[in-house]
């Protein structure tokens, strides 16, 4: 080992193969035991740390320590010696430096163990010593890359351990080295397609899992590498590798699958833990509004998250767009460049530098197309070629290494002219940066061409006679400005090309490239220019973007493992992963991901599968995987329901299946408001009990099977069944007990009772899912199972509607349409229509007090009740009326619009003719109209019509019609009150309008009483009495004269005409008394209003109408003969009326000139009724003068 020290001394070979160690004169260190070396290294590094802490500059401090015995010189030499021990592996493939001495693995393993100890103990202090750090960055890591591909599992494991320690302590200085190791070693070995043995795969996977367990590893890989345009997507590759490796391929789960699963879940749980440290704010979309050179963008601060987080997100966006642009370019270069211009990644007017940088820094480009473009003779392409060459750093590189790196980025064209243009650009750049040996760029051009020819000669199988070293040296004489190049230089070039071909047709970027000396030198050059390493803390800055990338494969991988797993510890690992995925999805508002997770989990519950077993409950109780999946589904629904969208359908399918199996808690559909939210203001000061109790809501005549888990359990234990069953076994009892515990853990009822806490989008999707799961109602009969499903879903829909009264507008349209579909499609009484109708009534009852702005829509929905099929309506009419009555009593003060009252009164009116329902309907009407408690201008006329319907109805108690008439007549007090309030409170214009409206309402009132006065039953007399009260009572309501004329024409005259006709045609009881009352009412009102009426121009017409009705009453026959009472009454009433008219000076004989129509017409009719009245009323006037000319007057028989 000591003998090797001179050959592998510190910095024994520079990157160009020159230079020796400044410590070569010092004696070699010899072999140390592990413990001794660790103590020395630890002590020395600690010393360096102390001196650094004293504030001295690092480099002078390092130089000072060089003069101390056992200081940095010793430490560097020991560390370099340990690195040199790794160079003795034969034919490593890292160039000619490999020692041909055969060593077994003990020597490198010895060195690796000591190096690992030094890194562990020295830790981050190594960065305080530039020479030591340089050893780690270059020689150590280069050797680790080599030994990382070792076939020895022990060596590979040790190498991975060292790299993990280096990551923990020195990752800030090892950004590109870590990328190279992960890409070229870990990712390469962990996949079988690269020829690695199973042992290598397993060790690589273990190492990867160890890395994933570092809290910040994955997020730092994403921020530093995936979001760097010049680096590979290491995070994506690692995540995909873990997902794919977790999949069992046509075999049971292997240790590799479980290991990959552990790594995957470690990544996911790391994200979930970061959420607890502060969830990221909402992601701001990234847009490139204008072109900026993407390869030159820098971050203001790589340590401040406020700067670097938006910076790396923007850079990742650019990287993705570049990859899309590369795909376009590979299909059509011209259109690809146009696409990049459209996305502001290239300027509107292309310039050579931007195109060159696109070629240089974009992964995935077709290297054949890039080579063709760069070799083109077009002037712009030539400019791009030179700019492209200018992006390379060839400083201090051998020409063959520089040429290898240059030609790796594109395929060298086959035409000689194109090759010449390419090599000219390369030579110019190479000479510009490495002029040490070459005299000018022409020398570089000729030598480059010569190297390409040598490469073709040596590695083309068609060339039989190969060029010798002497031939190559001879061919390159006098090319260096007329002089020869050093023979050793050319010899080294010759052997480098012979031993390692320059590939002029590079691979198209598939897979992971092997690390070779030229690439390593390039990596070291890049590491000097790369952006600083971003150290991420434990906050979720980038987790949204990361998780969106890996969520799909992750869910699929965990699901497949869960499906194939057979042990509960693996089940639990998967469940932990599922819950972490749910937490992350919810935090970052990734609703689609959460929906996918729910869909995947629901399949494992076995609840969605058609039951193929006789006892599905027992099977569910025995299946631990199904039970764990079920609990997980409902845990996610309860904790993260805010972010579930389409997944609600799958969850509800599971709920429905549990319902069909009788496994749900009894109150799963409870609205949790029966006790706490029942409105207490019922208009009577007493709270109403909830009418729609669970017993009431049970379908009439539709027995339901025993529900609830305990009911199902008792069925199992029951021996008193139609078919004797054996005593359940202990296994069956245990299965049922497991099932019971599982359902209790699910807290299924909370989904619906706590739905008021769901976000609006989720709540709406839940409601839509319930409607979808229920199925669209079909006309005709449906199967009992389908109906049971629809009823259950409707219960849940009503429950969440009632629980979300503050957001009823969000749900109302869908709920109403669903209930409407049920109403329109149902033709026979059934549980579904009952639940729909009473559920609708319940919603209105509960929400009206809180949603006055929605009252009209709620009440309009009750019109659906009017559209029920006759058979359905008849079956539930009494219960519907009871509910409407409760609704009115509870919410009368909240119903203010005419439309709302129209619906209510229409429903009440219909009940007037239903024997069972009329009592409740009339009770509600009494509540509204008694003492005018809830009458208003909006509902006055509607309530009158409803009361008249009850008055005319022939069902119910005998006294109800009279009570209905009393309600009508009593309402006149409301009109009087409104009239008074109007005069006192409102402005003149408004008062006039409202007075007119009151007049119209009064007219409707007396018209309604007129119609009842024509009833066959004796209620007509009661109606007449009430009409008289309304017309002649002291109500202080002032109506215009025109309204009174309308009253005479439309009410009194019409009523008498109809009564006279009825008396002559029908044999109604007490009809004579009715006519007497009507005639008295007519004359009384005429007398009462005589003064006002006599002033009207139409008084004569009105008076003749009165006379005409008296004449008809004298002639009418009641039961076939004239009425004695009328024969006595009419003359008396007429005489009184004439006397009044005489006393008021209205009926007097005017001048004979021109005639007097009132005088003449009066006596014409009076003489037809009672001729003797003429002389009695006007005894002083000559009877001859009183007698009008019968020829000169024509009367209208209809007057």
What does this structure look like?
The structure is a single chain. It is built from 53 helices and 2 strands. It is an all-alpha fold. Among the domains are: 73-84 and 105-213; 305-502 and 517-528, Arf Nucleotide-binding Site Opener, domain 2, CATH 1.10.1000. The protein has a two-stranded antiparallel sheet. A hairpin with a 2-residue loop joins strand 1 (1117-1118) and strand 2. The longest helix has 27 residues, at 305-331. It is elongated and about 170 Å long.
Layout of helices and strands, plus pairs?
Blueprint: H1 34-53, H2 58-66, H3 72-84, H4 106-122, H5 130-147, H6 153-170, H7 175-189, H8 198-212, H9 217-226, H10 234-246, H11 255-276, H12 305-331, H13 333-342, H14 352-361, H15 367-375, H16 379-389, H17 399-407, H18 416-433, H19 441-459, H20 469-475, H21 487-499, H22 517-529, H23 543-564, H24 568-587, H25 591-604, H26 616-622, H27 624-640, H28 647-660, H29 709-717, H30 730-746, H31 748-753, H32 760-774, H33 784-803, H34 808-825, H35 831-847, H36 855-861, H37 863-866, H38 870-891, H39 898-911, H40 918-929, H41 940-952, H42 960-970, H43 972-985, H44 988-1012, H45 1019-1032, H46 1041-1065, H47 1071-1088, H48 1090-1094, H49 1099-1115, E1 1117-1118, E2 1121-1122, H50 1124-1143, H51 1157-1169, H52 1173-1177, H53 1183-1186
Antiparallel strand pairs: 1-2
Helix pairs in contact: 1-4, 3-5, 4-6, 5-7, 6-8, 7-8, 7-10, 8-11, 10-11, 10-23, 11-23, 11-24, 12-13, 14-16, 16-18, 17-22, 18-19, 19-21, 23-24, 23-25, 24-25, 24-27, 25-27, 25-28, 26-30, 27-30, 28-32, 32-33, 32-34, 33-34, 33-35, 34-35, 35-36, 35-38, 36-39, 38-39, 38-40, 39-40, 39-41, 40-41, ...
